[in-house]
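We were asked to recover a plausible sequence for a given structure. The inputs and outputs are reproduced exactly as logged, with field labels preserved.

PROBLEM: sequence recovery
POSITIONS: 406
GIVEN STRUCTURE:
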């Protein structure tokens, strides 16, 4: 089950990036489950990763490799997270990088590994290694759609986005894929995101840009409040567009590029939410009128994580008292309940801390019925705001996660 229609867009390969894939049978036979990205020499590559202390072996190794050498290959497998696998898991991650490096005649530190799937199961390293020649053979023919399909776990559809941009006569491109449907509350989620551009960007600035944009996109989504062990988001800048390298984030071109990057990453983040396990609603939770952005973010996530709010959303039940209760328990020291207003899809539910005189149950029902729902809370305290994106909580979510390993 997923929210809305979704067709994977036509995405041309970014100049300086090639994609290959293989069917290794890591968890299921005859499905794409190994993906290889080849990155040209001279490209800048940045990454942000899960804050879960039990991060997977590939995450630890990826961080290490990223700090040591310029990345030339990304190796991704689905079907197994290689997390909670101890010393053996790290050894398997290292073996996979070494095998790619041997075929490509590069250093192992130039290979960045990524895994997603079941936690705690040993990575079937022999299957992974034996699939690499097949993945390399497809580097000339692989497409973004192949990569999008090759990183799916409980996703019901591949997720991709593309931007062809022009700025003062300079053309450049942005393309990316993401995966994720459950265990989603990024600090970074069980999510992976891979975005590439042909813009030239200074390596040190690329990480700064990525961290900022992820905080406005992938770090503003939640499905079930669980932060995964494997979350990673990578940004590749090949420098093939012909622009003068971005070395100053205050330049007009840099600001335009960041605006476009934010747009594509928010699209990929929204695609994860819309494909959330068992999701029937795509829900925006906006908190305005806050004294600080941090307070607004806190209240928004408290609402987005509430099982009572989420089940009411699933039932299209305008039980607005549940939202009011969450605002009250969010722990804001300066909260004045007499100033709080709540809207659902532009229907005023609460005014000055109580049911609005204009509200009727019929209006509330109509506001809660669409697939796309916007909840807005105005705290009446200041000028700061934030927004997060989430889903409802359905019977199917419980079924999917209860039967995930069976």
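RECOVERED SEQUENCE:
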């Amino acid at each position: 089950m997923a929210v809305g229609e979704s067709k994977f867009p036509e995405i041309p390969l970014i100049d300086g990036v090639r994609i290959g894939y293989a069917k290794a049978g890591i968890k299921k036979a005859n499905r794409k489950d190994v993906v290889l990205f080849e990155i040209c020499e001279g490209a800048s590559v940045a990454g942000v990763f899960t804050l879960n202390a039990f991060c997977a072996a590939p995450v630890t190794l990826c961080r290490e490799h990223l700090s040591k050498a310029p990345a030339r290959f990304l190796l991704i497998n689905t079907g197994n997270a290689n997390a909670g696998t101890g010393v053996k898991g790290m050894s398997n991650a290292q073996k996979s990088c070494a095998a790619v490096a041997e075929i490509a005649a590069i250093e192992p530190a130039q290979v960045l590994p990524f895994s997603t799937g079941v936690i705690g199961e040993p990575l079937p390293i022999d299957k992974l290694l034996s699939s690499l020649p097949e993945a390399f053979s497809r580097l000339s023919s692989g497409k973004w759609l192949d990569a999008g399909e090759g990183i799916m776990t409980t996703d019901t559809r591949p997720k991709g986005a593309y931007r062809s941009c022009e700025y003062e006569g300079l053309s450049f491109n942005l393309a990316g894929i993401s995966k994720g449907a459950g265990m989603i509350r990024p600090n970074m989620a069980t999510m992976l995101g891979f975005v590439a551009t042909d813009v030239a960007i200074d390596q040190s600035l690329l990480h700064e840009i990525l961290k900022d944009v992820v905080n406005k996109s992938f770090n503003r989504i939640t499905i079930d409040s669980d932060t995964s062990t494997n979350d990673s988001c990578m940004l590749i800048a090949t420098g093939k567009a012909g622009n003068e390298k971005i070395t100053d984030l205050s330049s007009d071109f840099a600001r335009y590029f960041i605006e476009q990057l934010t747009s594509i990453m928010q699209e990929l983040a929204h695609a994860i939410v819309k494909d959330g396990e068992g999701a029937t609603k795509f829900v925006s939770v906006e908190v305005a009128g806050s004294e600080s952005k941090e307070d607004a973010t806190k209240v928004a996530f408290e609402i987005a994580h509430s099982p009572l709010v989420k089940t009411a959303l699933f039932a299209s039940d305008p039980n607005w008292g549940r939202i009011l209760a969450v605002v009250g328990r969010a722990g804001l020291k300066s909260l004045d309940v007499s100033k709080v207003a709540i809207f659902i899809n532009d229907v005023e539910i609460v005014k000055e801390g109580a049911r609005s005189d204009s509200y009727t149950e019929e209006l509330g029902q109509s506001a809660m019925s669409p697939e796309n729902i916007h909840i807005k809370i105005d705290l009446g305290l200041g000028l700061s705001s934030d927004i997060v994106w989430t889903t409802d909580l359905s019977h199917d979510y419980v079924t999917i996660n209860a039967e995930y390993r069976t």
